[in-house]
């Protein structure tokens, strides 16, 4: 800066006399910009659009928060039901184990009592005369036969082997329900409908497999005829034709369902009804009749043996009746005829559930068609291709008017 000042002073000094230098700078004028203020109506429309956009955004946010809150509440309720289901599984396991012990302990005790009474009756024949030893043996054998008769009446009424099988089936069905609830929670799409459905299934299982024996809650062990067990809620309409025909989409498919898959499932169910269900109904009625005959024969024979000890001088009637009663009891409760009958009831219910799932459930409430087909194949112990082969074989046999020679299920 100092050097510049010195140089300027030298220039001024060299160019004397001093002259004034005038400098002017021309700055261009800025261009005129003309603009107009928006009208009142345009202002209002803009504000309204902004308000509508913000309102829609707020509504979407509120709706999302409400859905999240609903899902959260439904999930909490499902967890509560899941805890109850786990508790019921434990209860049915414990009660089933207890009633299985009843069957073995009561059978052994009754057979030991019957055999002891039979032995006493045989020993009474060796005692000559009519002294105190003979009277003691006769009274002892009569009391033992009477006790065995009373215990048999109670045992045949409650059928411990059948009770144990009921609790095993209940535990298995509750485990299936537990897995379904856990899957619903894991997917993260829980709703109030899922909660209500789970509650209905729990209550239906409680009605199908009651725990108490008194108060008329116990299932009838000797019904008039064989009826399949039912452990699912009755929520499907009975008008199958309306559900299967009016709700179809004429071959375009709906929820993965189409005419071909519908025909395939119908053919499978026809095989189930003509072969599996009829066979299990026949076997169930046979098991019921055998169980009734054995339940009457055991106490009747032991009662005849008790009366023979009192009124007969010899020992042939008590001994023969006692031996036959022991054989009958061993076959009935040792062979667990009641358990076999309950197994047939459960299998019949399984096939009936398959039938109602296909024929009576509304289309929009079904699972995806491909997924349903895979589940059906797994439940019947087949692959998807084997299920299709069974359906085509059933259709060809029906057209030819012949009976199909295989069952639908390969598991039971």
Write a concise keyword list for the protein shown above:
412 residues, mainly alpha, disordered N terminus, F-box protein, Chloroplast_duf
Question: What is the secondary structure topology, with strand pairs?
Answer:
Layout lengths: L1 H13 L25 H85 L7 H27 L1 H28 L4 H17 L31 H7 L12 H53 L4 H19 L2 H23 L9 H11 L4 H17 L12
Helix pairs in contact: 2-3, 2-4, 2-5, 2-8, 3-7, 4-5, 4-9, 7-8, 7-9, 7-11
What this model shows, in words?
This protein has 412 residues and is mainly alpha-helical. The protein has one domain. It has helices spanning 2-14, 40-124, 132-158, 160-187, 192-208, 240-246, 259-311, 316-334, 337-359, 369-379, 384-400. The longest helix is centred in the N-terminal third of the chain and has 85 residues, at 40-124. The radius of gyration is 43 Å and the shape is elongated. The termini are far apart. Mean pLDDT is 80; it is low at 1-21, 33-37, 62-67 and 236-253.
Main pleated sheet: none
What is the global morphology? elongated
Mean pLDDT: 80
Number of strands: 0
What is the helix content? over 70%
Number of self-contained structural domains: 1
From the N-terminal CA to the C-terminal CA, the straight-line distance is 110 Å
Give a quick summary of the entry:
With about 400 residues, the chain is an all-alpha fold. It contains eleven helices and no strands.
